[in-house]
Fold:
Amino acid sequence: MNFVYDLVLNFCDLDNFYEFYEWDTTDNLTYVQEIPIFKIDCFQMNDLLQSSCKLSSSFLEKIYKKTSTVQDVIPYATLFTDSFRIYAFLFDRYGNMIKKSSLLVDEENAIMEEIGELDAIQLDYEVIEKCSKISFLTRNEKKIQSYLLSEIKSLYKNKKYDEINYLYYEYFSDSKSIREKYLFLIDKIQYHYCSDYSRLYDIIKLTYSDTLSSS
Structure:
C-alpha cells in the first residue's frame, strides 16, 4: 500500500463540493499526516466524482484507520488518482461515500511526481445514485443565487411589490402580473442563473445600505 504524507484537505458534502481555488478562509480544513493512495481508471474516477458510491467491505478493511491527522485517526479515508488528478474521499463504516476533497494544486503536482507509476487496482464499488445535475456555478455565484432567492421570496411574502417590479424591469420589459413577475424571477435565478444576475444582488445590497444610512 502506498501513502501520501503531510497535506491539506477540505472535505465537503457531496452536494456542496468546491475545488481548491474556491476554498474559503472559514472552511474547516483537515491537516493530514498520512493517507493511503490508490490508482484507478478514469471511468471509475468519474463515477466517484459524479455519483454517490458505496465501496465493498473488503476495500474498507484495507483503508481502515490508515489515515491520521494531527489530532486523530480517520476510520475510512483514502486518495484516488487516475494519473491526471487526485481526490480524497471519506466513507462511513458501511462504505457509503459521505465527503470528498480536492487538493491544493502544488500538493497535487508534488504527489504526482512522488508516486511515479502506481499499479492500477480494480476498485470494487457500487454506484448508488448518479448526480442528476452538476452545477457549474462558482461558490460565490451559489451564495449570490441563494441570497437572491431568499430576498425575492421575502419581498413577495411581505407584499413589497414595487421592489419586485424594480428588480424585474432591470432585465425584462414585458407586462406581467406581479405574481408572474415573481415566479419568472424565481425560475430564472434558480434554474437559469448566470453571472448577469449579480447586478440584482448589488441593487438589493445598495437598497439596504441606503435604508440604513437614511435612518
About this structure: The chain has a mean pLDDT of 88. The chain has seven helices and nine strands. The two ends are 65 Å apart (CA to CA). Residues 139-157 form the longest helix (19 residues).
